[in-house]
Amino acid sequence: MRIVLLGAPGSGKGTQAKKLVEKYGVPQISTGDLLRAAVAAGSDLGLKVKAVMDAGNLVSDDLVLGLLKERLAEDDAQKGFILDGFPRNLAQAEVLEGVLAEMEQPVEHAVLINVDADEILKRILARAKVEGRADDNEETVRNRMAIYKEQTAPVAEFYAEKGMLSDIAGVGSIDEIFSKVVSALN
Ligand code: AMP
């Protein structure tokens, strides 16, 4: 089971990824988590990455790809993976194809959790108050959404053109959305 999970920040993509991990027994690989771990390690590079993330901008493709490749090489990823937060732009989607082709582990399915922009903004601003994430203030959220629209939304189109995309309405309860995701994968 090798899946790319797509969706705007606040779409509930991370929650669905965790449920897929439980059901299919493959790891969730979140480039946001990999980056946060790099930041927590406190290196000079980590500080630069933190500034980029706090502003809601994308970290450089090379850096993210380096972290991702290391993660894909670990044992647990050999049986499959749920990619969460990668690819974030068309260049990453293209590089990913090459990397996975070399590993003979191509993506089998892309799933878009589709939620409209107004609903997303409402959700993330509510989450910002609860979790106090530095990248969840209103200005950053708007920036992340603009980047999503300009750079990440075309990635869904990239997989759609290959006939690999399931476009799932991300409304309703977590379990309702999850059952739609599972039916799309079967
Ligand atoms: P996420 O946890 O997926 O919302 O990611 C949090 C932040 O990490 C994003 O706003 C970006 O700054 C950065 N990030 C995560 N994944 C990527 C990626 N594939 N390419 C570039 N930046 C990324």
Explain what the structure shows.
This protein is of the alpha/beta class. 59% of the residues lie in helices and 12% in strands. The protein is built from 8 helices and 5 strands. It has helices at residues 13-24, 31-40, 44-54, 61-72, 90-102, 117-131, 138-161, 174-185, and strands spanning 2-6, 28-30, 81-84, 109-114, 165-169. The chain has a 5-stranded parallel beta sheet with strand order 2-3-1-4-5, sandwiched between helices. Helix 1 crosses helix 8, helix 2 (31-40) packs across helix 3 and helix 6 (117-131) crosses helix 7. The longest helix has 24 residues, at 138-161. The protein is globular, with a radius of gyration of 16 Å. The mean pLDDT is 93. The structure holds adenosine monophosphate (AMP). Adenosine monophosphate is lined by residues 9, 31-32, 35, 52-53, 56-59, 64, 85-86, 88, 92, 135, 144.
What topology does this entry show?
Layout lengths: L1 E5 L6 H12 L3 E3 H10 L3 H11 L6 H12 L8 E4 L5 H13 L6 E6 L2 H15 L6 H24 L3 E5 L4 H12 L1
Parallel strand pairs: 1-3, 1-4, 2-3, 4-5
Bound molecules: adenosine monophosphate.
Adenosine monophosphate binds next to helix 2 and helix 3.
Bound molecules: adenosine monophosphate
Order of helices and strands: EHEHHHEHEHHEH
- Radius of gyration using CA atoms only: 16 Å
- Mean pLDDT, all residues: 93
Main sheet? 5 strands, parallel
Which structural class matches the secondary elements? alpha/beta
Spatial arrangement of strands, main beta sheet:
2-3-1-4-5
Hey, roughly how much beta strand do the residues contain? Answer: 5-15%
Number of helical segments with 4 or more residues: 8
Unreliable spans are none
